[in-house]
Design brief:
The protein is of the alpha+beta class. The protein contains 18 helices and 23 strands. The protein binds adenosine-5'-diphosphate (ADP) and magnesium ion.
Amino acid sequence: MGKIHLLPPSEIQKIAAGEVVERPASVVKELIENALDAGATEITLFFEAGGKDLIRIIDNGCGMTEDDAQLCIQNHATSKLTTVEDLSAITTFGFRGEALASIAAVSHFTLKTRSAENHLGITIAVENSEIVSTAPIACNQGTDITARNLFYNVPARQKFLKKDETEWRALHQLIIAVALENLSCTFTVHHNGRQILLCPSCTTLTERMSQLFEPAIVPHLLSCNQTLEQKETSPLTFSALFTRPSRTRYDKNQIYCFVNRRWVKNHKLAQAFIKGFRNILPPQQYPIGALFLTLPHAEVDINVHPRKEEVQFLHPIRIERFIEETIATTLDNTVQSDLGAQRQNNFEYAHTSSFRPATRPAFNPTMPTTAFKNVFQNYNAAPLENQNNQCCTTEECVHEQQDTLVPQTTSSSARLIGQLLNTYLLVENEDGLLLIDQHAAHERILYELFATRFGSLAPIELLFPQLIPLSSEECNALLPHLPFFHEQGIEIELFGENRITVRAVPAPLKNSNLTDIVRTAAHWILEGFTLEETNIVEKLYEKLRAMMACKAAVKAGDVLSQEEMLELIEKLGAIEHRTTCPHGRPTTWRFTQYDIERFFQRCG
Ligand code: ADP
Ligand code: MG
């Protein structure tokens, strides 16, 4: 007997299904598109375990007759095209007649549907691509599809499904995109028995953004709408609704790009949008945005990807520049008009505020120096020659600085000269001059303290537990990680829908902005959604530590007393990674006597 044999049709179907559906989000994308194609104005979704255990979608669209219902789960069954030529003219979403057949091949699948012309609907159950039961059923007009245990019969694919949370985030992102594209449809979403979203049909994108994110973003939204004439063909248009730099997030994933009204994942478009902000975004923070690009169909290939998620442009650079410029101009104009409105009020303030009287204690040159004299025996600081490393990444910075550290100084005495610009501490040691950034130094000290003692720092109960409103997305990101926060002494509890209370925090955080900390942490989790659980926790732990250190540290501009300065210098001297702050910025610069003499051309 030969080695070659034909696969049974059910196996072929399962393999082919992987082309169309890969994870819960891709299943849901197909099902929502079908519902919208069927004219639905209300779509209700239920999920369990990130869609892995249950996907159910109920729509009020046209429904199907009994015959159509039996046919629709056959491969290449479609009501949307009959010849290949139709492909280019197609206006509906799905067009290959493969989605239902694929989903039914790899899940426990049930379909209930009724069309307007029938009084009774039909329910059909499918297992391994075979119809196992059909029965008449009384139901509303529309379609109700349930797919349970996705890939239960294709273990190789099931293995690649991510943890619930990760799949849920992909689903959630998809639903936001669909809701942004289809304002006239009402979307209701439940996950694990909780209602997560309720977006009634609406008429403006602003209204939809406020339903999807939070009403508080509305005053921070900016819009633009620009057309670019093209010589050879019809124009490009770009319109967008996005948050100003005053309302940013720590995750990049809330930038939704639509090309000819289809949601696409195109890194370059999002990048061009961010570039348009021209460095006015806080570090590592990103706006929320819905971007709509319209261009002649011949200039975009939307079918490069079997799931139609990616696009290719004929003139990518032109498009990216256009987006970047439009955003930059919009922001410029806004800043100008904001300034115009405020100029009157600020005029007086500008005159009185630039010179702040120094309230710090007068410098006392006879101050005792013994308190920290030993510190500088081992004080390794970044030497002057090492100044040109500004543009390296954090890791490189730390690395480079450690590699080029000068041999330890042997000074046995050091003297605090004072505070410069309320930001830098000047210290003289036998070797020369140390210039210490008070914020960076304190941040490093606290970071190291948290590293060793964070969990064990006794939490203190807040007198007034703080109530923090969150978006449903933020809330869902945080919930599975509550034990992690408890371990860090931050006691968080869910408080009704999309609100949490913080009851206790470690002492160094008692005066910090907890809303900021909690929301930032939620965004890190969202951002890291592609990571495995242990990596998320690790990353979260790292970042949380750094953030808390940053929030609790003295700031540039804080006036410090002699005692505070001494304490800071002493503690800095006592820790290991003292040359950089947790973000990799140097804490200290060292100017040796030789450096200083060189400045003044005293040495040959
Ligand atoms: P395609 O969307 O490419 O035609 P699908 O497998 O997604 O292929 O769907 C097959 C057919 O089933 C559709 O053409 C449509 O006629 C019908 N159908 C699917 N979902 C729905 C729905 N929610 N309401 C009404 N008809 C539907
Ligand atoms: Mg379809």
